[in-house]
Amino acid sequence: MKLHQLTIHEAHELLxxxxxxxxxxxxxxxxRIEDVEEKVDAFITVAGDHALQQAAEADRLIASGHCEPxxxxxxxxxxxxxxxxxxxxxxxxILENFMPPYDATVTRKLKQAGAVILGKLNMxxxxxxxxxxxxxxxxxxxxxxxxxxxxGSSVGSAVxxxxxxxxxxxxxxxxxxxxxxxxxxxxVGMKPTYGRISRFGLVAFASSLxxxxxxxxxxxxxxxxxxxxxxxxxxxxxxxxxxxxxxGASLADxxxxxxxxxxxxxxxxxxLDPEVEAAVNRAIGVIExxxxxxxxxxxxxxxYAVAVYYVIAPSEASSNLARYDGVKYGFRNTDxxxxxxxxxxxxxxxxxxxVQRRIIIGTYCLSAGYYDxxxxxxxxVRTLIVEDFKKAFGKCDVILSPVAPTPAFKIGExxxxxxxxxxxxxxxxxANLAGIPGMSVPCGLSGQGLPIGLQLMAKHFxxxxxxxxxxxxxxxxxxHKLKPSL
Length: 486
Ligand code: GLN
Known about the structure:
There is one protein chain. By secondary structure, the chain is of the alpha/beta class. The chain is about 40% helix and about 15% strand. The protein is built from 15 helices and 11 strands. It has helices spanning about 10-15, 20-40, 50-65, 105-110, 155-160, 180-185, 220-230, 275-290, 305-320, 340-350, 355-365, 370-395, 420, 430-435, 465-475, and strands at about 45, 75-80, 115-120, 170-175, 190, 210-215, 260-265, 295, 400, 440-445, 450-460. It has an 11-stranded mixed β-sheet, with helices on both faces. Helix 5 (about 155-160) packs parallel to helix 6 (about 180-185), helix 7 runs antiparallel to helix 15 (about 465-475) and helix 9 (about 305-320) crosses helix 11. The longest helix has 22 residues, at about 370-395. The model has no long low-confidence stretch (mean pLDDT about 95). Glutamine (GLN) binds near residues 130 and 152.
């Protein structure tokens, strides 16, 4: 096996035994980036020299006997998580010159663990999108078929992991942006419970939904990454002061006695591709074979999730994005005659069409006279969705569903029809609305050789149950070992 193909836990063993150095590993991964970046366009910034310095530092740490699970491991970060002195653009023209003067809490934690930060990954602008076609920088391509979308919005993260351009990555998930690209690229991705990870230094899209999470080559790696980045942070008042278990500890525990809920609404979802449905059904069979009991549950309000999300997320975005006005930081259009014009033209030029669409929708939903009808009503239905999950989790430990209704579609296929595009999030949005953890694990390939993901969801702060089910499933199948041929 080549060095860039290693998982984090495999590389860690070799580093600990001093069979390889972090510098060798980092060089191998940088070489891989050089070889395939042209085809897939996953990175916005590759910080090679900086990464090699960090690798040298990690090698010194390891030589002195300090080898934590992420020490010396080359990772990459979605371009909306602040990295001190390294551009953080959100794939938007409006932040093209933004060099954060500080690290996000998760970045700081990775650095403290001795990880090597390779660079920053492409995304849909401000994380708004399901296909990477909304990136203000470039379109990332699916390594399994370069004509197809790799999902969105944490596209660079999923593609870089799938194409062995890093050993693991961080993304963010507001409505599916970790799970959906993970599903389309055949990697493991987790959106942890809202409040599990500090959002300090994560550029805000929709603050009541956003969560940072890991993307990795297998479930054990995903658990290792979460171990490092989870935990309460005084700098984020929505991070929750609860203990962080060792997520690697219970991976191998069996599934006997576990109840898996299959929501009856999912199989009748319009637009569910038969190949996706068949792959998920086969996965249910495998999980039953491992000793879990599958039961029928109901999430009757999930049919409103898309409508609720596309009121709440744009509303919060319109408020969060008000700060980009050309005055404080970021792009400013200097070709203007007076202040109002400067604001207007800066935002018209600085934001792409989807971001502008959402700001307009959100501003409308929050405006006096419409607030009760839209944001207020959506918040009420959100509560019903939360109640649905509470009831379902009264009967089961994990809920299982598809991640995306179809395998990866062709670039350009849905870009002119935002409503169809929004439906690609139909299975993932509810977990964000309810704040519960959700995960995508590879569970099949379509007839055209495109990866299909299985979604697992659990009660708040029950990530370890998800890891356990996912790991058992992974060990019983081979899908996580399949690689795109680039
Ligand atoms: N695709 C969804 C959207 O465009 C979700 C994005 C996300 O999770 N960041 O809003």
